[in-house]
Amino acid sequence: MAPKSIATLTKLPFLFLLVIFASSQAYEYQFIETNMTLNFQEYYAGPNATVNTLTGIPGNDWAFDSFGTTYVVDDPITQSLDKNSSEIARGQGIYMTSSLDGANMQVLISIVFTSNEYNGSTLEIQGRSLQAANVREVSVVGGTEIFKFARGIAKFETLNVDTSTFYALVQCDLTVLHY
Ligand SMILES: *[C@@H]1O[C@H](CO)[C@@H](O)[C@H](O)[C@H]1NC(C)=O
Ligand SMILES: *[C@@H]1O[C@H](CO)[C@@H](O)[C@H](O)[C@H]1NC(C)=O
Ligand SMILES: *[C@@H]1O[C@H](CO)[C@@H](O)[C@H](O)[C@H]1NC(C)=O
Ligand SMILES: *[C@@H]1O[C@H](CO)[C@@H](O)[C@H](O)[C@H]1NC(C)=O
């Protein structure tokens, strides 16, 4: 064997590792586009609150417009506006006021489908929500099952707030590309 071949052989273990850790393939899948409108039925206080303050910066106000305030959320999600209509998903995750001026919130929400054709699938929403905006656009960064490899856009709009029952109706218009 020529010395050149020996040099090639010594590279083999490295190449072999590459094959183990990463492989790629060209697919010809088409993205499917799915649009849907979901309604988050949120109770921000009271005995059955679905969003609760988790923590904040010691010495600061713990409020939605105060840097660092962090909430945990598990909202029922319905297809129709009616809060008594049957649940099709839960909106579970974290909100955190993430700009020093208190204007922006970081949203980390899983939409966990619990019935109908998407039952068992999830969508991941993550990004900056400009709290004062009427319509708050946040990215869809992933999903599971039916929504594998999802990406898209979620537009949130607060349609109704009832301060007597601590209730807020937040509509979410989703456009999602997935396989
Ligand atoms: C989904 O909504 C987007 C934005 O409104 C629109 O451009 C698109 O045609 C809709 N797609 C379907 C499949 O309805
Ligand atoms: C909270 O939930 C419980 C159990 O579902 C229910 O009995 C109660 O009426 C609810 N309270 C309010 C204020 O909605
Ligand atoms: C929803 O249910 C509550 C309690 O069961 C009831 O008081 C209320 O009128 C219902 N709302 C609607 C829009 O049906
Ligand atoms: C949703 O899926 C779960 C797990 O597969 C199942 O237990 C449940 O009955 C389903 N719910 C509905 C409403 O179809």
Bound molecules: 2-acetamido-2-deoxy-beta-D-glucopyranose
Rough outline = globular
* Residue runs with pLDDT of under 50 for 5 or more positions: none
Overall pLDDT confidence: 90
Q: Biggest β-sheet: count, sense, barrel?
A: 8 strands, antiparallel, barrel
Fraction in helix: 10-25%
The helix/strand order is: HEEEEEEEEE
User: What oligomeric state is this?
Assistant: single chain
User: What distance separates the N and C termini?
Assistant: 50 Å
Please give the count of helices: 1
Q: Strand pairing plus helix content: what structural class?
A: mainly beta
The total of beta strands comes to 9
Strand order of the largest sheet: 1-3-4-5-6-7-8-9
Radius of gyration: 22 Å
**Strand-residue proportion:** over 45%
Question: Summarize this, please?
Answer:
Helices cover 11% and strands 50% of the residues. The protein is mainly beta.
Question: Could you characterize the architecture of this molecule?
Answer:
With 179 residues, this protein is mostly beta strands. The protein has one helix and nine strands; from the N terminus they run H-E-E-E-E-E-E-E-E-E. Strands 1-3-4-5-6-7-8-9 form an eight-stranded antiparallel barrel. A hairpin with a 4-residue loop joins strand 6 (122-130) and strand 7. It starts with a helix and ends with a strand. The mean pLDDT is 90. One 2-acetamido-2-deoxy-beta-D-glucopyranose binds next to loops.
Write the layout of secondary structure elements.
Layout: H1 3-21, E1 32-43, E2 51-55, E3 70-78, E4 87-97, E5 104-113, E6 122-130, E7 135-144, E8 151-162, E9 167-178
Antiparallel strand pairs: 1-3, 1-9, 2-3, 3-4, 4-5, 5-6, 6-7, 7-8, 8-9
The structure holds 2-acetamido-2-deoxy-beta-D-glucopyranose (NAG) (4 copies).
